[in-house]
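Input sequence (199 aa), recorded before submission:
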Amino acid sequence: MARPRKFDEDEVVGTALRQFSETGYHGTSVEDLSRVTGLSKGSLYGAFGDKEALFHRVFDAYCSAAGAHVAARVEGPEDEALQRLRDWLRSSEDRPGQLACLLAKGTAELASEDEVVAARSLATFEMLFDSCRRLVEQAQRAGHVDPDADPAVLGQLVVTTHRGLEALARGGVDTSTLNRIADAAIDAIATPVRPRSSS
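Predicted structure, token format:
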């Protein structure tokens, strides 16, 4: 009878996520993973399979969390939808450093050679597009975005801006500059507030 495992798989996945985020897939060895998780190679292989299988699980977990984080912003009053999009672009929690780039890093490093990563990456971006489209539609109904604009395209624009801001953050651009860019992006899709005419 096999002995029960004496470690938390989710905790190991979280630790491996931090390692892959820091050094990438190719830059991370099984020895690195064994060192940071405290598990022997045999235990890692027994629980997760090889390095590729572990990365797939880590990448899937990260992508699920990233998609759920944005999907949660769809919930709320429609007249606050545009502000929720602004907050997503401005929020430092979405750009805490290296962890924020695992989707971009994994996609850039592996999508051309790993069908699993390519498919999961595309599915995640589609989820982000959909959530942002729904937020734009809410803002349109609230009168904050031109109702004739294409909400799908504007949602994709917001996601693309977010990806760009993450890259700039990794490059050392200061937070105030990042937030000015975020504000400019949202202001660009917002319907100008017309002053009330006096009567």
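Checked by second reader. The radius of gyration is 20 Å.
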